[in-house]
Amino acid sequence: MEINRKECPDFFLDYILYITVTKSLSARTVQEYYLDIRLFLKYLRMMHESQFADVNDLRQIPIKDMSVEMLENVQLQDLYNYLYYVTEERENHDRARGRKVSALRSFFRYLCYHQNVISHDPTERLELPSPKKSLPKYLTLEESKKLLQSVNSTYPERDYCILTLFLNCGIRLSELVGLNMRDINFQESKIRVLGKGNKERMVYLNEACMKALQAYLEVRESPDNSDEKAVFLSKHHTRISKRRVQQIVENALVQAELDGQGYSTHKLRHTAATLMYQYGDVDALTLKEVLGHASTSTTEIYTHLSNQILKDATDSSPLAHFEKRDPKKK
After folding, report:
1. Is 302 an annotated catalytic residue?
2. Phi-psi category of residue 8: left, alpha or beta, with phi > 0 → left and psi -120 to 50 → alpha
3. How far apart, in Å, are the Cα atoms of 150 and each of 43, 153, 305, 319?
4. Selected catalytic residue, list 196, 201, 237, 244
5. Which residue of the set 172, 220, 267, 270 is catalytic?
6. Model pLDDT for residues 80-97, shown as the tens digit of each residue
7. Angle at the Cα of 230 (from 169 to 167), degrees rounded to 5?
């Protein structure tokens, strides 16, 4: 769904332009913020303007003629009422509500501190319970080996290389798709990837990655009409799409009999991080740099321990074999 500029008031369009250009947010995040703020503006009109009080479908409420002065009167309670609305009426869970809070904070800070069109920021005291952090789903070491061993496709070298980079480097889908030939440093065995927020980082390649990459490049077709820059090409010799990579992973999971268990392209990133932590003696700070996270708080979800490690830790207690003596026994 594209941004409908014709339905947006000027102050809203200015904000969208601001987060797109100045904040360098991804197209997906901009789209989500647009939808979240648009919904909030429609909700605001429904709650505070009598002509929209009986409207059941917020899509019917226009926002083009909204004045920024209306946002001057927004109070903290309005924001909580909105979050209650999306929870009850739209069944938004923790993550969706958290994103809406982020969008609202960004929007009102822009209006208050960057444009100075409202006198106060109602989101300053806006709180939301932290979302539950569930353990990330990942493949075990044996399952990872099985997945790599089972690759059987029309372009086996390419598909094997893609899976190898995912499982060894923990790069994102967008980072893999965006790889260009000039990003590969064969001499130092590393690649340059463009992560979130247009932040570049260097990812080092181990022996398995280098072998897989070299094997793929030996058979990589590069006719005159191909995308010479892209590392991974489609059968049409254009840069491979995100959806095609997802299909490659899905097909490989089926061949390895690992389908239907909730695994996906992003779960391979979880797997890489988890295996590094469990078998490579890698700490959270190092993982942060490898994965390209902005802070270690994000990385900490990967540093969970396997059940066996937890069991071994419990068994190592000096009281693990203690037995209460029966006073009746001598």
Report:
1. yes
2. beta
3. 51, 10, 27, 45
4. 196
5. 172
6. 999 988 988 888 888 888
7. 15
Helix axes 76-88, 27-48, angle to 10 degrees: 110
pTM of the model: 0.60
- Quickly list DSSP for 264-318: -HHHHHHHHHHHHHHHS---HHHHHHHHT-SSHHHHGGG----HHHHHHHHHTST
| 293 part of the active site | yes
**Percent of the chain scoring above 70 in pLDDT:** 84
Q: Are strands 200-204 and 184-185 parallel, antiparallel or unpaired?
A: unpaired
- Tokens linked to 16: 């969208």
| Token pair in block for residue 195 | 């992560």
- Max CA separation in the chain (angstroms): 91
Tokens representing residue 138 in the block: 């990942």
Determine the residue type at 129.
P
Catalytic residue among 99, 146, 237, 266: 266
